[in-house]
Specification:
Structural class: mainly alpha
Shape: elongated
Number of strands: 0
């Protein structure tokens, strides 16, 4: 997955609650309260709600250039009305995703850092998980390997909560890449060994071979040449991926019959 396509998928997973202007106060709050002295329910106007709907539509249509200014208006409206931290965090995550797709890495990272702070303050575990997914992509795109490794480690600690069923070898290969860039060869080797095994279990032999080759490189970096050579041999001997036997078309079968 490219960073932009992965980011565009992440935004869909937690829509923001659209507040009802006539609500009696249920759900209002900013982490531990709505942030107002009176405790009155906060709400944004219909115009802001419409901007949010348009932003979602733009993201659905893969139009980040249209979504980004709409989300900026939403952030202003939600912040002015002192809406819950988790909702403002979601808006910053959405805008960060759009900015990543627009190759505006510094702006995307600023959004995601704000989203991370707000989601952490609100104790919003699900939102925080989504922020980490997008921020890791941004950090990788900016070759900020130390922070990327930290976010990927946090994601792997919550691996069972991600959308991919079972172990996630792709997160491990990404963290291995970050660790290699940091010169942490043994950690990279451990990740790639796990990834190779997990990819073989699901039958993804091509990526398993690639993981084995990466493992060999990491083991050489870790000054373990014998283990590195063993990984290369294992990759070389990996059975080819199965391909479905091609059934000849009727004209081809007829030609074969005439040839006999």
């Amino acid at each position: 997955l490219s960073s932009s396509s992965a980011a565009s998928d992440v935004y869909k997973r937690q829509p923001i609650r659209q507040p009802d202007a006539d609500a009696d106060g249920a759900g209002a709050g900013n982490g531990g309260g709505d942030g107002s002295a009176s405790g009155a329910p906060a709400a944004v106007g219909e115009e802001a709600i419409e901007r949010l709907r348009l932003a979602y539509d733009a993201l659905d249509r893969a139009q980040p250039e249209r979504a980004e200014p709409l989300l900026t208006e939403c952030i202003d409206a939600w912040t002015k009305q002192r809406m819950p931290d988790v909702e403002v965090a979601s808006l910053h995550r959405l805008r960060g995703s759009a900015r990543l797709q627009l190759a505006r890495g510094a702006d995307a990272l600023a959004d995601l850092d704000v989203a991370h702070e707000l989601a952490s303050r609100a104790g919003a575990s699900d939102e925080l998980l989504q922020v980490l997914q997008v921020r890791a992509l941004v950090l990788e795109s900016r070759a900020d390997w130390a922070r990327a490794e930290t976010d990927l480690t946090a994601l792997l600690a919550r691996e069972d909560e991600l959308s991919v069923a079972g172990p996630n070898p792709f997160l491990k290969t990404r963290r291995a890449h970050a660790r290699q860039a940091l010169g942490e060869w043994r950690g990279a080797a451990a990740d790639l060994a796990d990834a190779e095994q997990e990819l073989n279990v699901v039958g993804d032999r091509i990526r398993a071979v690639l993981a084995a080759c990466g493992l060999a490189l990491a083991l050489f970096g870790a000054a373990e040449p014998s283990a590195a050579v063993a990984a290369i041999v294992r990759a070389h001997r990996a059975p080819p991926a199965r391909t479905r036997a091609r059934t000849p078309s009727p004209p081809t079968r007829a030609r074969h019959a005439r040839a006999r």
